[in-house]
Amino acid sequence: MFVSNIKGESNNAWKQFLEKGLLKEALMCCPAPDKKQYLAGVYADQKFEKGKYNSAAENYAMSDRNFE
Known about the structure:
Blueprint (H helix, E strand, L loop, with lengths): L8 H11 L3 H7 L3 H17 L3 H10 L6
């Protein structure tokens, strides 16, 4: 069995999740604060559209968007 450790792999994992539409996972592993704010806003919008207002509000609080 071979074990490999790729440096910097987790730094770009969030992009792969985003491409697949897995916003929650992308948000959880995104290292950059500015991109994390953006992802939180997009994820909040998605939750809001589904009627999950309390959960959306939590994500809006992590983003730079307003929840009104």
